[in-house]
Amino acid sequence: MSEGKKTLEGSDFAKGILTAIANILKNREKLNSINIFPVPDGDTGSNLSYTLRKAAFTLRESGGLKLCEVVKRFSEVLILEAKGNSGVILSQFFIEFQKAIEGKDVLTGKEFAKALKESAENTYKAIENPVEGTILTVMRDSADAAMASQRKNDDFLHVLEDVYHATLNSLEKTKKAMLRLKGKEVIDSGAFGYFLLIEGLYRYFKEGHYEMPQIDFDNEQKKSDYIKQERIKERYCTEAVVEGEGLSQKKLKILLAALGSSLIVMGAGKMFHVHVHTNWPERVFDVLKKEGRIIKKKIDDMMLMNEMAQKKEVGIVVDSASDIPLELADEKEIYIVPLSVFIDGMPYKEGIDIKREELNRMILEGKHDIKTSQPSPNDFKEGIERAFETYKNVLVITLSSTLSGTFKSAQMAQKLFSEKSANIFVFDSRMASLGETILALRAREKAEEGLSLREIVSYLNKLVSYSKYLLVVGELKSLIKRGKIGKLSGIMGTYFNIKPILTFDEHGALYAEDKIMGLSKAFEKMTAILERTLKHSWTYDFGITHFDFEEGMNKLEDIIMSRFSAHMILKAWASPVIGTYTGSHSVGVVAIPRL
Predict the structure, then answer these.
(1) 516 forms bridges with which residues in the sheet?
(2) Would you say 284 and 262 are in contact if contact means Cβ atoms under 8 Å apart?
(3) Secondary structure (3-state) at 279
(4) Of 108, 192, 272, 324, which has the fewest CB atoms closer than 10 Å, so is most exposed?
(5) 75 phi/psi in degrees, rounded to 5
(6) What does the alpha-carbon distance between residue 278 and residue 264 come to, in Å, rounded to a whole number?
(7) Is 29 in the same domain as 127?
(8) Whole-number Cα distances in Å, 342 to 31, 347, 580
(9) Which DSSP category does 574 fall into?
(10) Is residue 458 within 8 Å of residue 591, measured between CB atoms?
(11) What phi and psi values does residue 587 have, to the nearest 5 degrees?
């Protein structure tokens, strides 16, 4: 820039626009997140970033060129690389800017203002159906401010400063200027992209140093919260660059107008860039082939993009040993994978082939040979696939790996998702029953707070280390039958009414923390263990389960409410996995702190 910052030169234009591009790339995800117009496909930031990607390299290599030459090279790259509605409009703006300053080595503030005015007006005219409250409005408002500013002071920086403030003011008004944005308290994404360009340009000239954009387009983009509210009528965003002698912008518009909406034909001379939303992309290409040579084309399925955009971050899958109430699972969008049950040698899936109530009745009757088994890897695969329909990442929480092969089965299922395996984490709860459920509910809370999958896993590990699970075995006959205790010990224990109190160690292995004679003393002992283990200054979520012992469950609830600080108390029948081993009159409790 010349002394006094009164004019704009080629090298400073390149550095200023590079800083502006860096500003847009930094805000790429925010641009995506507020994308509503013209269709809510959540990709404005991605499209602008893509459009400006190669242009950044062109600017970096433009040292020593005159201003008009730098802008010409920049605009020519944009014709080829423009993507999406906002990308195409921005490209059209720079094509018009290049025409307005043709042959000029530098620009005064007055010449800059005049070029902005012509660029905004001609870009507006190039759009088939211009809509107020969009990038077009902000372009026009900033140009009007430039014209008013140059009448007072012809210095380039003075004009640019007024343009910056006018652009910011116009951007805020887009919340109410467009019908689709009213009541949503969100600015137009394309207009915000233009503001970021002006802001980066202004920052360079104000501060005197430029920033080289960090080109990285592999990061996953965040999508719009508003996308699901809109319906896409034309499915495909279709674009092409066509080259040929005698091409006419007006003729191309007439030929393509009936094939869709959001039609933009931009360019000059022998080359034009076409953008249209249509249900018939091949028809668009057929028309263009008759008019010239297509040197570049692309089709984006906006319906598919819309579906992807609606996906949330972390989905949660549990096995049916979690005992999660079905209505709670539905409410919190937690997917249940059923355990398998063999009744007299015949396989059933719990909750699908046989209701849990019926299965529990059969266990209590003792007339059938009933064995439980972990879900197959394919069962977990189906559960994970259902979660992937709505979520980008999946957290699978399983029964303790020391009790069952459920954890291993889920890990095997993870390997079946070769490309998405990194988006799945299989978490060993090191507990059972409602311990799994409470961990799943906490994971859902943290996902809604914006924590990543890895952050949630770290949080759950911390919770497990401070949690306590206790289970009173009601009957010893099942443990005897299944070889978990010796026959003589079992007979003696039954005779003296011994009630083992089981708990999990730090690795998730179940062991007897104590043995008590009679249920009443068992409740006293459980209370003593909880009072010794839990921190009285902390608040806990509690889960209470029973197997044919509702009276015991209610008694535990009364104890918890009177002795501990409970944020939530969940109650449920224990799963058949527990019931087949512990029998009637079994009751358990889990306490997980709210950290």
Answers:
(1) 499
(2) no
(3) coil
(4) 108
(5) -70, -35
(6) 12
(7) yes
(8) 54, 4, 12
(9) P
(10) no
(11) -150, 140
Q: Which of 287, 240, 285 is nearest to 79 (CA)?
A: 240
First to last CA, the chain: 57
Is residue 438 a part of any domain in this protein?
no
**The domain that contains 487 carries what CATH number?**
3.30.1180.10
Q: Which domain holds residue 545?
A: 466-595
Q: Which residues contact 554 (CB under 8 A, 6 or more apart)?
A: none
Q: Identify whether residues 273 and 193 lie together within a single domain.
A: no
What's the half-sphere exposure (Cβ side, CA atoms, 13 Å) at 101?
32
Distance CA 283, CA 296 (A): 16
Say whether both 40 and 120 belong to one domain. Answer: yes
Domain assignment of residue 27, yes or no:
yes
Q: What pairs with residue 499 in β-bridges?
A: 516
346 lies in a domain? no
Query: Residues 162, 90: one domain?
Result: yes
Domain boundary among 265, 281, 307: 307
Domain count, the chain: 3
Return the bridge partners of 510, or none. Answer: 504
3-state secondary structure 295-327: EEEEEEEHHHHHHHHCCEEEEEEEEHHHCCCHH
- Cα dist from 533 to 58, 314, 527, 538, whole Å: 66, 32, 10, 12
Query: Minimal CA–CA distance to 439: which of 471, 461, 411?
Result: 461
User: Are 169 and 136 in a shared domain?
Assistant: yes
Q: Is residue 375 part of a domain?
A: no
170 and 294 share a domain? no
Q: What residue type is assigned to position 15 of the chain?
A: K
Per-residue tens of pLDDT for the chain, all 595 residues: 444 468 899 888 999 899 988 888 888 888 777 755 555 545 677 778 878 887 888 888 777 788 999 998 888 888 888 777 778 888 889 989 999 999 999 999 999 999 999 999 988 887 777 778 788 899 999 999 999 999 998 899 999 999 999 999 988 887 776 554 444 556 778 888 899 999 999 989 888 877 777 654 334 344 333 334 445 678 888 988 998 888 888 888 888 888 988 888 887 778 888 888 899 889 999 999 999 999 888 888 877 666 655 668 899 999 999 999 989 999 999 999 998 888 888 888 887 777 778 877 887 787 888 787 888 899 999 999 999 988 989 999 999 999 889 999 999 999 999 888 999 999 999 999 999 999 999 999 999 888 999 999 999 999 999 999 999 887 655 554 544 444 434 444 443 456 888 899 999 998 888 888 777 888 999 999 999 999 989 999 999 999 888 999 999 999 999 999 999 999 999 887 777 777 788 899 999 999 9
Strands 293-301 and 346-349: unpaired
Look at the pTM and tell me if it is higher than 0.70. no
Q: Tell me, what DSSP letter sits at residue 452?
A: -
Q: What is the CATH number of the domain that holds 182?
A: 1.25.40.340
Q: Which residue bears the tokens 């952050």? A: 455
User: Three-state SS for 38?
Assistant: coil
Whether residue 70 sits in one domain with residue 186: yes
In angstroms, the CA 30 to CA 383 distance is 32
Last residue of a domain, one of 307, 333, 353: 307
Looking at the structure, tell me whether residues 38 and 126 fall in a common domain: yes
